Amino acid sequence: MPLKAVGSDVDGTLTVRRGDLRVSVHAIRGIRLLESRGVKVILVSGNSLPVTAGLSVYLGSSGPVVAENGCVIMYRGQIYHVCSGRPPEGLLRKLQDLGLRPSWQNEFRYHDMAFFMPRGVDENSKAELLRAVSEIAEAHGLRVLWSGYAVHINPGNGKGEGLLRALELIGVSASEAAAIGDGENDLDMLSVVPISGCPGDAAPAVKVKVKFVARGRGGAGFLEFARWLLAKGERN
Amino acid sequence: MPLKAVGSDVDGTLTVRRGDLRVSVHAIRGIRLLESRGVKVILVSGNSLPVTAGLSVYLGSSGPVVAENGCVIMYRGQIYHVCSGRPPEGLLRKLQDLGLRPSWQNEFRYHDMAFFMPRGVDENSKAELLRAVSEIAEAHGLRVLWSGYAVHINPGNGKGEGLLRALELIGVSASEAAAIGDGENDLDMLSVVPISGCPGDAAPAVKVKVKFVARGRGGAGFLEFARWLLAKGERN
Question: What are the positions of the active site (chains A, B) (predicted)?
Fold first, then answer.
């Protein structure tokens, strides 16, 4: 099957490395390389729609944009809602009572709401907080996604469903697509396509699931993946 | 005076060239170079706040973010409104009747609304449309700004006031700042600081007003300006 589209996570995958949100110039090269070979890049992010769609314009990716961990898509100026509804205010207040800090992007979100961990908490306390958040959210029938940066309260089925809907919009089947991501919230997206990859500094749970583990971190890993995909296409 | 901050337009200034919205890797280098020398970069854009603030995170600029042509600022997660109100619905409908297409970002804007020209109009028709839009807007006491990409209906005083307010927020005086832009909507911002620059492919009206005209286009010109500013600082 010829490769027609690549779904890509943003934070930790197109950035300098996991934990650094500055975009990588290698990732930009990788995106433009794929696009110049006719492969559409689809950003699939936990960010809000305007942040993800704006980034897509500036990075030069031509595929649809999937935001809010799969909940909302933009393509050619049209907005498509994959999820419906949003977490109730009472739930969001409970999270703030636990010390979680709402993302400034929540004002621009439709469905998936994001929170940062309290400042200065250690890994143990983080894990404990995540468990507490999951309990609260699950009581409301909502999922909790941890991106490595933010806790997301998500009323949908995650990035995988978002990517499949985006592929549908451009008439590409999942068998003609690949995907790359670094976080646990990318796992379901990585499992809906036949070819998956991750940067060298991805979460361990991601590294064991993907076909291609890059040597470089973050966006350097994305560029490796892009080159590997194109070389693979030439061999076939 | 030591240089402490640089206000920068985005479209046409940090992008590959005027008319190409893909971000320039040279511009990214320029931003990170300034930041590594302790000079805060302040994005000053006609884009919506979430698009500009998201871009600032990914580009790695640490100054406040000025969006909507000076109407709204974000710094450390706080939003500051420089303008008040927004263009009335009747006015926006009139523009659509003229064939102008609303930007997808309008849904995420507070004050300044943006429209694209109808597809396939020539330069003469564009100028005529701009005159018609100005007449309608001025009847409502609103300004019209043309960025080279979009027509903005702006209820404020433009980018200059936005940049000054942003500098205030970080305790930097205008005399310690520089600015760079390529479009006519950047002129007032370029005039509120002692040192101004533009890329080599800036609008002619901008080229005649600034101190430094770069040779390179777009973001390559931004990198030249950044290096020139830092070398100038060392000479003084």
Answer: 9
